Amino acid sequence: MAVNRARPIQKLGAKLHALQERKKKPSRKTEYREGTPCLFISHKREDTEACKKITDYLLDAGVDVYFDEYDDTLSAIAAAGDENLLTDRITDGINMSTHMLCVVSPQTVDSYWVPFEVGYGYEQTDLGILTLKGIWDSDLPDYMKVMDIVRGIRSLNELIAELFDEPKFRVKQRAEFVKESELNRCLQAMRVL
Fold first, then answer.
1. Which among 5, 43, 129, 134 would be 20 to 30 A from 150, CA to CA?
2. What is the pLDDT confidence band of residue 42, given thresholds at 50, 70 and 90?
């Protein structure tokens, strides 16, 4: 079963004050990381609904995911307005991830956080971008043009197969999410992918 890594680390919410006291860089080692790939979803706030669908699709496929919208502690930190803790929490999410999937839409160009997350994760994760409908290579910022590009559901399924180092047909057998899934139809109907 896939793990939403934003949820298991909610236990830190009770230790918010202790987290505030922490001065050192977070470790990449986590109890959830051993031998299991995890995708950090980097996105612009305006693309949250599409990213929720993509995240649920990945979770259904058995991929561990860190998605900020599913992190109650991050929401509490953001509501408190503590920029230091907010940055620490985001970097913690990147640190516990093996891969980053940057979801790109026309709004991404105006993001402050996406370039930060990509820059921070550049040396620590395998980076890829997932383009939403209507994004062309010429629309991408230069720093994204060097990343692997995921376009459409077939390409996303290939990424999932690579994460697990499995042939594509085994990924299809692993969960019935590829062509027949309700989520797949939803992504297509939303014109997300």
1. 5
2. very high
Q: Estimate the share of the chain in helix, then strand, then coil, as percent rounded to the nearest 5.
A: 55, 10, 35
Distances (CA, A) of 9 to 14, 18, 92, 144, 166: 10, 14, 10, 29, 28
Per DSSP, the three-state class of 140 is coil
C-alpha triplet 94, 97, 102: angle, nearest 5°: 65
Encoded amino acid at 46, one letter: E
Mark residue 190 as left, alpha or beta (left: phi above 0; alpha: psi -120 to 50; beta: remaining): alpha
pLDDT digits 0-9 by tens, 111-126: 999 999 999 999 889 9
**65 membership: H or E segment, kind and range:** strand 64-66
Please give the full DSSP string across 27-44, using - where no structure is assigned: PS--TTTTT--EEEEE--
What residues contact 65, with CB distance under 8 A and at least 6 apart?
A: 2, 3, 4, 5, 6, 38, 39, 40, 41, 55, 58, 59
Contact residues for 27 (Cβ-Cβ < 8 A; gap 6+): 95
